[in-house]
Write a structure and sequence with these properties.
This is NAD(P)-binding domain-containing protein. Pfam families: NAD_binding_2, RedAm-like_C. By secondary structure, this protein is of the alpha/beta class. It has helices at about 20-30, 45-50, 60-65, 80-90, 110-120, 150-160, 175-200, 210-220, 225-235, 250-260, 265-280, 290-295; strands at about 1-5, 10-15, 35-40, 55, 75, 100, 125-130, 145-150, 165-170. The protein is elongated, with a radius of gyration of 23 Å. The structure holds ligand FVH.
Length: about 300
């Protein structure tokens, strides 16, 4: 599904959106020798890129027309789904027959809506989800997930590989976004847990820095358990697992947090998910069963 970058000759590319990420993506394309046209809603954000050889476009229509007659690829890296429509709706007919890669973060349904919109206007569409921060672009460790039309992915792959390891995740245009948001959900919950722990030790005079030095290796080691939990969830049998729900009572973590005057919200949320399964009679099952609490609507 993923692979190394492959050589590609200079091709016309239009970059719409020169925020922190868009500017870095455009710069990487310039460094790779491509013919890059740039546009941003607010003026002035293209100065460095133009100095490096990018063509500035005053309007979106100018920007998307810039690749003709070769029909260059158009890349959108804007704020959100609404800003993508606000930018592209007025030039939908100009984009007919062109390839559009959307790297703006959207929800899965928004990605699907955009794919439908593109299809209705005869625009060739690929959705992408950037799993990297701007400084990571072009460096090892950067990954971008794509979904939608696999033929399009193959056609523009040479461009995509300039930025990161490119992975095609399937024909559903919402799949890349789904994986992105699911991973971000795990990341934000982990950070909230870390910061809750930092607040607990902070209430007792331990610096967050000291806590981070201890927490980072421990939490990293804990991620080794993802595979076992995943096997349990996929198998659907929680009866033969390791740590039981009864054993995992988190009431003492909640009480300790309250004793310290620290809001226990992050750990209380986990305890609530655990409690629901215990109350439903599953206390002897594996802790991974809280997955079933989450599936409940
Ligand atoms: N930066 C990051 O670390 C993350 C990494 C993962 C993926 N995200 C997503 O990438 C999209 C762009 O992110 P960004 O970091 O470039 O974001 P900003 O620096 O805030 O720039 C936003 C650009 O969007 C333009 N914009 C906003 N609203 C509109 C609109 N209604 N019409 C046209 N353009 C619009 C904004 O223009 P301006 O404010 O300069 O005029 C910027 O060019 C994003 O989806 C992340 O979630 C980045």
């Amino acid at each position: 599904m993923s692979g190394a970058g492959r050589a590609v000759g200079p091709v016309p590319v239009t970059m719409l959106g020169l925020g922190a990420m868009g500017r870095v993506l455009a710069a990487a394309l310039l460094d790779a020798g491509h013919d890059v046209t740039v546009w941003n809603r607010s003026p002035g954000r293209d100065v460095d890129l133009v100095a490096r050889g990018a063509r500035p476009a005053a309007t979106v229509r100018d920007a998307v027309g810039a690749g003709r007659p070769g029909g260059g690829t158009v890349v959108a890296c804007l704020y959100d789904h609404a800003s993508v429509h606000e930018t592209l709706d007025p030039v939908a007919e100009d984009l007919r027959g062109r390839t559009l890669v959307n790297l703006t973060t959207t929800t899965p349904n928004e990605s699907r809506e955009l794919a439908d919109w593109a299809s209705r206007h005869g625009i060739v569409f690929l959705d992408g989800a950037i799993m990297a921060t701007p400084p990571m672009i072009g460096a090892p460790g950067a990954a971008i997930l794509y979904s939608g039309d696999e033929d399009v992915f193959g056609e523009v792959r040479g461009l995509l590989d300039v930025w990161a390891t490119s992975t095609f995740e399937g024909a559903d245009p919402g799949r890349a976004s789904l994986l992105d948001l699911a991973m971000l959900s795990g990341m934000y919950t982990m950070f909230a847990g870390f910061l809750h722990g930092a607040a607990m030790v902070g209430a007792d005079g331990v610096s967050a820095r000291d806590f981070a030095a201890r927490a980072a290796p421990f939490l990293a080691a804990m991620t080794e358990a993802f595979a076992a939990d995943a096997a349990t969830v996929d198998g659907g049998d929680y009866s033969a697992g390791g740590q039981s729900l009864d054993w995992s009572d988190l009431g003492h973590l909640v009480r300790a947090s309250e004793d310290l005057g620290v809001d226990p919200a992050p750990i209380a949320m986990v305890e609530e998910l655990r409690r629901r399964q215990v109350d439903a009679g599953h206390g002897r099952d594996d802790f991974a069963r809280i997955y079933e609490s989450l599936r409940r609507r």
